[in-house]
């Protein structure tokens, strides 16, 4: 069979998806990227959605990386077909997808499929976390980077990892008064990772310059501190923060409060596996990323013609995502006969080496930022865990007391995870509760449900 | 006219407007309903079926905590909807809580499919009032 007309479909036009498409294009292979957003680039490099003359809050380093990703697409435009504002909402038969563009449904067949749908942020419930003004940190960043608006005028950031200083700088440059930045891990834990961080000296230097920017501008950065609760009548007005110990248990005797109108919370990410699940790929539990598709070499999933790249296969950041997209594309190019085995081997090796450097760097940060289960003590009995179905912590506790040991039974018992968001928000907490209770092996995965995105009746009738 | 106080860079000459809770706001091509809401410094965006006030949380279509009524349609995610000239956006509105207002075009979510599957051995009901 001729491979000339074989369809390569890529779901998700972030660093992974664009890199895959550009790599395929280099070998003369056309592909099609589907993305639900209005612009290519993914969550990090999408850029502003409206016209602006300047971007005073984004540094040069960022603007360069964004341009180089956008160039990857522009330089290969004739081989990359892009369909934006279109969500993949589920599979259609053995080798097809159902797409929704808000107006109508359609289907699309593939010979090879690359799923690079990225990640979303991990929710950590605490008293008051559902108040308006409490946002996830990356969500705050999307507001300032893509929306060009400040979601609050006086804000704090509580979380862990390299995004904390980055977003604090961006907020400050955007004109937000940053009350403080609270990094859950202690500085001694970071110092232990010095060697790992030197795998990416540029990124480390960049991190250091952000820290000194914050210092120069009197934005306090507290290591070993974290959120305790948020309070306010209609929306957040005050937060309580406290020192965290090694297990990230808050020391309430040293707690203090701060008045503000918005806060960004960022304790990690979860792989976006709704589509990989609906395609029935095999998954495995990952403490860092929740559940991830099980992959063999070259990003191949348990289905031979389906590849997974980028954060969907475990959180590695955009540089890692780009290498993974490239590795998947090289494998497809080999199978389509566009390159020989020697070219495949040498190019794949090079990408793998790059990926390894990212991993060495990243793992240093991951060890530093590894989530500790002490945070599970934050919610009180009345804290809502599942915001869609209003399931409170006491209901989750009651189910555990009755002996529930898996997530599907927990959903049946409490309705947690049954709402509009399909459990994307509450499942991270529930998995951690099972892990804490010693049931990680048997808790199972909260299944994604068709359609991944709500659709209207009118669309179904057509 | 609601004042845009939270813009990081000026929106320039705006030719188009939307209405947020019946008040006009200048907007520009490309922006989301959520960024217009944030630009006028509102953060209480929806009331869920349990009467809890919620605001935008994930900013990327995941959490369904930013649902507004747009031109009569309930449960539209403001963070994923681009503005259109003349659009009417109502915050804090909920079909269950807005007594007497009939939803003109309900959305079909995965929960509906799930309930269908669970009740598939029972006779089909006449009532197609899903949420
Ligand atoms: C809100 C947020 C902010 C972040 N900020 C940073 C940052 O500043 N710096 C950093 O290094 N890392 C950041 N990260 C981590 C970041 O996700 C990775 O570093 C990097 O973007 C991964 O690239 P990717 O290609 O795997 O995924 P992404 O860049 O996330 O791209 C995935 C794309 O898939 C699309 N998509 C998903 N599901 C579907 C579907 N069903 N149908 C159609 N399209 C779909 C999405 O619209 C998106 O464009 C952030 C993550 C999040 C969630
Ligand atoms: S803010 Fe989460 S869906 Fe809009």
Provide an overview of this structure.
The complex is a heterodimer of chains A (462) and B (131). Helix content of chain A is 35%, strand content 21%. In chain A, α1 links the parallel β1 and β2. Chain A is globular, with a radius of gyration of 22 Å. Chain A has 462 residues and is an alpha/beta fold. Chain B has one domain: Ubiquitin-like (UB roll) (Roll). Chain B is built from 2 helices and 8 strands; from the N terminus they run ββαββββββα. Chain B is elongated and about 45 Å long. The two termini of chain B are 33 Å apart. The C terminus of chain B is likely disordered. The chains are: A alpha/beta (462), B alpha+beta (131). Chains A and B meet through β9, α4, β23 and α15 of A and α1, β4, β8 and α2 of B. The complex binds flavin-adenine dinucleotide (FAD) and FE2/S2 (inorganic) cluster. The site of FE2/S2 (inorganic) cluster has 12 residues of chain B, from loops. FE2/S2 (inorganic) cluster binds next to loops of chain B.
């Amino acid at each position: 069979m001729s491979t000339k007309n074989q369809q390569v479909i890529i779901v998700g036009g972030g660093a992974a998806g664009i890199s895959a498409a550009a790599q395929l294009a280099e070998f003369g292979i056309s592909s099609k990227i589907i993305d639900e957003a209005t612009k290519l680039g993914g969550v990090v490099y999408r850029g502003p959605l409206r016209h602006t003359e300047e971007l005073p809050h984004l540094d040069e380093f960022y603007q360069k990386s964004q341009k180089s990703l956008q160039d990857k697409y522009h330089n290969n435009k004739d081989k990359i077909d892009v369909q934006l504002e279109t969500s993949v909402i589920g599979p259609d038969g053995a080798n097809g997808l159902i797409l929704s563009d808000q107006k109508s449904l359609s289907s699309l067949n593939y010979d090879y499929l690359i799923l690079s749908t990225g990640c979303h942020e991990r929710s950590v419930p605490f008293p008051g976390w559902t108040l308006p003004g409490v946002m996830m940190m990356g969500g705050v960043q999307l507001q300032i980077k893509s929306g060009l608006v400040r979601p609050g005028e006086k804000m704090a950031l509580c979380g862990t990892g390299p995004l904390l200083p980055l977003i604090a700088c961006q907020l400050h440059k955007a004109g937000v008064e940053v009350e403080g930045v609270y990094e859950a891990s202690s500085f001694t834990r970071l110092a232990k990772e010095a060697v790992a961080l030197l795998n990416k000296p540029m990124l480390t230097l960049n991190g250091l310059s952000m820290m000194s920017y914050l210092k120069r501008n009197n934005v306090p950065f507290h290591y070993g501190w974290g959120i305790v609760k948020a309070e306010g009548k209609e929306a957040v007005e005050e937060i309580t923060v406290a020192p965290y110990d090694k297990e990230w248990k808050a020391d309430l005797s040293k707690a203090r409060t701060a008045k503000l109108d918005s806060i960004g919370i960022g304790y990690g990410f979860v792989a976006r596996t709704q589509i990989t699940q609906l395609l029935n790929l095999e998954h495995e539990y990952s403490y860092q990323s929740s559940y991830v598709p099980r992959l063999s070499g070259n990003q191949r999933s348990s289905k031979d013609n389906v590849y997974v790249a980028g954060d969907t296969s475990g959180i590695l950041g955009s540089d890692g995502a780009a290498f993974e997209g490239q590795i998947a594309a090289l494998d497809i190019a080999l199978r389509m006969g566009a390159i020989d085995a020697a070219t495949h081997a040498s190019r794949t090796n090079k990408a793998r080496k790059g990926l390894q450097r990212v991993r060495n760097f990243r793992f240093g940060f991951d060890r530093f930022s590894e989530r500790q289960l002490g945070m599970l003590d934050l919610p009180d009995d009345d804290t809502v865990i599942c915001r869609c179905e209003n399931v409170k912590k006491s209901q989750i506790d009651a189910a555990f007391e009755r002996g529930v040991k898996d997530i599907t039974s927990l959903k049946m018992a409490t309705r947690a995870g049954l709402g509009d968001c399909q459990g994307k928000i509450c499942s991270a907490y529930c998995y951690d509760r099972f892990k804490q209770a010693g049931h990680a092996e048997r808790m199972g995965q909260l299944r994604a449900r068709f359609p991944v995105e709500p659709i209207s009746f009118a669309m179904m009738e057509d | 006219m609601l004042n845009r106080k939270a813009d990081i860079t000026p929106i320039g000459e705006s030719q188009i407007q939307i209405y947020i809770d019946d008040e006009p706001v200048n907007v520009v091509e490309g922006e989301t309903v959520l960024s217009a809401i944030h630009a006028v410094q509102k953060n209480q965006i929806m009331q869920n079926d349990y009467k809890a006030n919620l605001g935008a949380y994930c900013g990327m279509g995941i959490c369904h905590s930013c649902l507004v009524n747009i031109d009569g349609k309930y449960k539209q995610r403001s963070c994923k909807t681009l503005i259109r000239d003349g659009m009417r956006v109502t915050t804090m509105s909920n079909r269950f809580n807005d007594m007497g207002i009939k939803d003109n075009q309900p959305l079909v979510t995965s929960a509906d499919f799930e309930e269908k599957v669970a009740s598939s051995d029972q006779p089909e009901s006449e009532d197609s009032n899903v949420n």
